[in-house]
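Q: Predict the assembly, please.
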Amino acid sequence: MSGRRMLGVGLAAALCLGAVWTAGDRYAAGVFCRLTLAAAAAVGLDLTLGLTGQISLCHGAFMGLGAYAAGIFAVRYGPAGLCMGLLCGMGLAALTAGGTGWFVLSLHGDYLAVATLGLGEVLRVVFENLPAGGGVRGLTGIPRTTGPLFCALLLVGVLLLAFRLKRSRWGRFAAAIGADERAALACGIPAHPVKVAAFALSAAVTALAGGLWAGMIGFIAPSDFAFTRSIDLLAAVVAGGPGHILGPALAAAGIEGLHILFQPLGRWQMLLYGVALVLLLRFRAGRRGHGVGRAHPQK
Amino acid sequence: MELVAKGLYRRFGGVRAVDGVDVTLREGETVGLCGPNGAGKTTLFDLLTGFARPDGGHIRLDTGHGWLELTGKPPYRFARAGILRSFQQIRLYGDRTVAENLELARMGCRQRCLREDAEGLLYELGLADVAERPAGELAYGPRRRVEIARAIAGGARLLFLDEPAAGMGREETAELAGQLTACQARRGLGILLIEHDFDFLASICDRVYCMAEGKILREGPPARVFGDRAVRAALFGE
Ligand SMILES: Nc1ncnc2c1ncn2[C@@H]1O[C@H](COP(=O)(O)OP(=O)(O)O)[C@@H](O)[C@H]1O
Ligand SMILES: [Mg+2]
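A: Predicted assembly structure:
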């Protein structure tokens, strides 16, 4: 136990050091924030995909929900508005996920994937048509209030929350549902409510990361939170090992790093990125034999 | 406590898997359910434990202080009311130990069964030696018994066992019958179990239901039901 704790403290210290070290340089700070926020968003997704085994193809959109809420509030009310926007975004994401989840989370596998894909597209259209959201061109002039230290602290907090949850009674219920839902029901575990709660919480955490993203970059557009963002997050959790929390966080930072690395390549970027992703997943799958754990629980 | 189901009906496409069935099960009695393959026994179990919604009919529980309406409720509501089950195809958490499997049911059903009782259960069902082994490593017979122990650890008052002796040899079946009756007597459980072996049913059941083509064909004491011509025709084509 104390070994784990030391690892945790070391990790938190390293993150804070990294934040302080990059704070002076604008480019480095930007890179650091993008990596940590992508990691936090992926941990958010891991709360549903890793624990209860529910696939989601709309977490990019939940990130966008947080970003737009924070962005719009910050543009209107300044830095104090950002805080309000963060809370609002989390609430909205939790409500959207919870409400939709109540209907779709009884679905399994491919059906659930397609249903969440639909929700993601609906949200993207909403972002494009928000009165104060700047349309497809996006929202500019968001006061840049969040820096590396904020992002580092958020990631530490999110990791802590995730580990706590995973070891709680509730987390054990969630894991039991992910491993075999019918067996969980036979143990008296309220599978549907737990899945809905996990989905809502997961959406809120990812939205929080999105909100800080808006406050860090200062500019957001609907295309930032389109399907490809959801795929990035999904790939990160799958590659990092669903339910392992730290793995998905690292993988998400790695994938975001690839984006930054390949950015100067213009239109070749997505091609190289795609190849890298395939190689990454092949490597992961190879090491674990086959499959990727609980992403597709059998019914 | 008594579970009362009336007019249960469930179809799959054109198949009437359960077709107007009345069943009761009260604490302290052991009841058998037999019938040919495809008669609808497992589907009836799914209905009685909340794993499937009936297309018609209702399920109520007489708790001793009022009726609890269970029709259309999710399985965990049944479980938390004391109605627990095992599956025809064993569903355990194979990578967790036997004790952890029981612990999960204790937590899930809100700990109505004490920890000491859960440990005692493992003795009663002959599982004490394997309590710390992963459930997936056990042989078939012990795995079946772990599923039964899990249901009781969840605080079962009414226990539904889907072919608990399937795939067991003569000796093992006899042993299971002994263990079941001991558990049942000690806790005053009501047990409904699906089984094909007449001798097994006759040795432990107070009464039996015989099902065919979704309907209850006969109900009564084992000797009378098994002597019935219609029952023998349905089961053996005699
Ligand atoms: N999930 C299902 N989908 C379609 N048909 C089913 C399903 N479950 C059971 N059935 C049908 O319902 C009938 C009763 O099945 P079942 O309850 O498993 O019988 P038993 O347990 O008595 O062998 C069978 O004809 C079977 O094919
Ligand atoms: Mg059956």
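The first strand of chain B starts at residue 2 and ends at 12. The two ends of chain B are 39 Å apart (CA to CA).
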